[in-house]
Amino acid sequence: MRLAKWLGGVAAALAIPGAMIPGIAAAQDRPDQKAFFDLYKQLVETNTSLSVGSCTQASAQIAERLKAAGYKDADITLFSVPEHPKDGGIVAVLPGTDKKLKPMLLLGHLDVVEAKREDWTRDPFKLIEEDGFLYGRGTVDDKAMSAVWADTLIRLKKTPPKRTIKMALTCGEETTFAFNGAEWLAKNKPDLIAAEFVLNEGGGGRLDSDGKRELLAVQVGEKAAQNYTFLATNPGGH
Questions:
Q1: Residues 64-116: tens digit of each pLDDT
Q2: What φ, ψ does residue 171 adopt, rounded to 5°?
Q3: Which residues, other chains included, contact 57 with Cβ-Cβ below 8 Å and sequence gap of 6+?
């Protein structure tokens, strides 16, 4: 992942100035930039794969950062189900100053596709920078956006916006069985995530090597699933 510019573009749109500077180290000069990168690094290096990982652990780590920023226990909901205790998620709420405005929802997922160590040149659960690129499972999908969402709530805590902002980071998106995903929240805790609109992965964009915007993609539909069983002998992947 070319994070120095790609993530910089996402971060800049959410009030994280300076992240467009080429080179990861150069983009961490300010304390707030360092705090964001530390959050992102911790999230990538927390294994959240289905077999041995824990979205519940990742959610708890984000909750601790939110509490350190001033959020109360009542503002944070950590959730899971007994049959899948490691596949938990988190919902956090930042109340807005204008109660007439309906909330917005920042939605992301914490789980990642399985990563066999023998298939990777580098440790997939260590965030490694080489030549301006970042390597690691989840550096983009979807821990980059989830880290930006969490960091945004931390930043805005000091100066709350007019509109209430909710953040929901879930598990199970990378499997057919979304144990505690967005659908589970909608069915079991609809009031917790009720919002006028949602920002979520699915669209996106592209920058060239100089950071110039080339395109902006908008998702207008959602995929459906069909299961097959087959054997592949090549190295594992997405």
A1: 999 999 999 999 999 999 999 999 999 999 999 999 999 999 999 999 999 99
A2: -125, 170
A3: 46, 48, 86
